[in-house]
Design a protein that fits this description.
Blueprint lengths: L4 H5 L15 H10 L12 H11 L5 E4 L6 E4 L16 E6 L4 H7 L4 E4 L2 E4 L2 E5 L6 H6 L7 E5 L3 H11 L5 E5 L4 H11 L2 E4 L4 H13 L5 E4 L5 H15 L12 E4 L7 H13 L4 E4 L4 H14 L12 E5 L7 E5 L3 H14 L3 E5 L7 H6 L5 H11 L8 E4 L7 H7 L4 E4 L7 H10 L4
Parallel strand pairs: 3-6, 3-12, 6-7, 7-8, 8-9, 9-10, 10-11, 11-12, 14-15, 14-16, 16-17
Antiparallel strand pairs: 1-2, 4-5, 13-15
């Protein structure tokens, strides 16, 4: 941040009104300096002070919004180079490249991958429509418009870009086609349509100079296409642009989100997936690929979710009762913590067993089993209280299976939950399938 907490405090009203959510104006100022709170949270800041602070405390990388409705996404807005320093703000978005020759085939299968992982929808979010010189480029664009995907127009031809925007401007696409040769015309096209403009170049020097020239024309709704002729040069440009944007004295000409078109770097879809993982971490705001099947989606979306979660906030699932394999009120209960990774590992094994069970998730602070037990968040008291308040009136079964690693809780839970039988599960989730099947065969559940 350009200003320290004390600098911000000098411009606050110093009323300590607490309306911003902080106990004092000094505390508020420190949070603003750290980027934890927006300056607009203060309702009594003067307009002059607000204008000065908004500019000074703005992220070194501009936040750009593209798309509309459910397909609206924020790009950029980053403040750190490394996730462990704070957190990344806007996750990488994946686009599938189509052109006139393959648009019908690809659009027919583009929604084949659409699933939820840890309460987040995983699907193709964008479509990159590549201009290949055809006279009816707008017809190609029509085939992807209205599909709930953010459109990227990969077109450097001014006339073709205008015709395409006549079709899809209302969906707020990205016009990725400003070059050193046509940027003045493309700026006018983007301004008229009110869309984000992508800047393309042969190398980083040309990219910088073209971006600077576009800023000189007064247009700053930009994304920077870092794709060059080789993987090495593309990687170097993506990293250099991000470093320049987030340096101690940032160069705001580099402070825009980026596009990396890995489909232009290699025709091998397996290699594209590997490159997509690379540029998810370093530092593609949008990564363009030729396809998105489960082979690409499972590793990429899993990686993205890990990279773009706040390391200071645990990944949690909602507390409650999750019936699995058609479980009803008479089915046995299985309980574990609300740490997302634990939940998905355990629920996956429970589903694989085929045995009807009610998976009960209580609030354990988003911690793992042993960590939450050590912290007192997954204990006889917390488990019994949750069952009394949320489970006993919904489930008739009085058997509960607890994680094997906290077998020590068995006696305490039974003492606090009269009438309940506590069963100790194996230590590892992978052993649950055999454990449950054996219990079912023996008539124990």
């Amino acid at each position: 941040m350009a200003l320290k907490g004390l600098d911000i405090f000098k411009l606050t009203p110093k009323t300590n009104c607490k309306e911003c959510g902080s106990p004092t104006c000094m505390a508020f100022s420190m949070k603003v300096a750290q980027g934890a709170v927006d300056i607009s949270k203060c309702p009594h800041m003067s307009s002059d002070a607000m204008a000065a602070l908004s500019e000074a405390t703005a992220p070194p990388m501009k936040t750009i919004k593209v798309g509309t409705g459910d397909a609206e996404y924020s790009l950029g807005g980053e403040t750190v180079l490394y996730r462990h320093e704070k957190t990344f703000v806007s996750k990488t978005r994946y686009a599938v490249r189509v052109n006139a020759a393959d648009v019908d085939a690809k659009m027919a299968v583009i929604d084949n991958v659409d699933y939820d992982r840890i309460s987040e929808r995983m699907h193709v979010e964008m479509v990159y429509v590549d201009y290949t010189g055809e006279a009816d480029y707008a017809e190609t664009v029509k085939k992807v418009a209205g599909k709930g995907k953010t459109i990227i127009l990969g077109c450097t031809d001014v006339a073709a870009a205008k015709a395409a925007l006549d079709v899809c401007a209302a969906e707020k696409p990205i016009l990725n086609g400003a070059t050193a040769a046509n940027y003045a015309e493309m700026v006018e096209v983007a301004k008229a349509a009110g869309v984000v403009l992508g800047v393309c170049a042969a190398n980083i020097d040309e990219l910088y100079d073209t971006t600077k020239a576009i800023e000189g024309l007064g247009y700053k709704e930009l994304v920077l296409d870092c794709t060059e002729g080789t993987i090495k040069d593309t990687f170097a440009t993506a990293v250099k642009v991000r470093r320049a944007a987030l340096a101690k004295n940032p160069d705001r000409t580099c402070g825009y989100p980026s596009i990396v078109n890995v489909a232009a770097l290699t025709a091998d879809t397996t290699e594209q997936c590997g490159l997509a993982s690379l540029f998810t971490m370093k530092y593609g705001s949008i990564v363009v690929m030729d396809q998105m099947t489960y082979a690409e989606a499972l590793p990429l979306f899993g990686l993205r979710q890990n990279v773009f979660t706040d390391p200071q906030k645990p990944m949690k699932v909602e507390t409650g009762i999750y019936p699995i394999n058609g479980a009803d009120e008479n089915s046995v209960c299985v309980t574990t913590v609300d740490f997302a990774l634990t939940y998905f590992l355990v629920s996956g094994e429970l589903e694989r067993s085929g045995v009807p069970v009610n998976l009960v998730i209580s609030d354990a602070g988003g911690l793992s089993v042993l960590t939450s037990w050590a912290a007192g968040k997954f204990s006889g008291n917390t488990i019994s209280k949750f069952f009394q308040e949320n489970v006993e009136d919904k489930v008739k079964s009085r058997k509960v299976i607890i994680p094997g690693k906290v077998a020590v809780l068995k006696g305490d839970i039974e003492a606090k939950l009269p009438g309940w039988e506590v069963i100790i599960a194996p230590n590892e989730a992978a052993q649950l399938v055999k454990f449950l099947k054996d219990m079912q065969e023996n008539g124990e559940i």
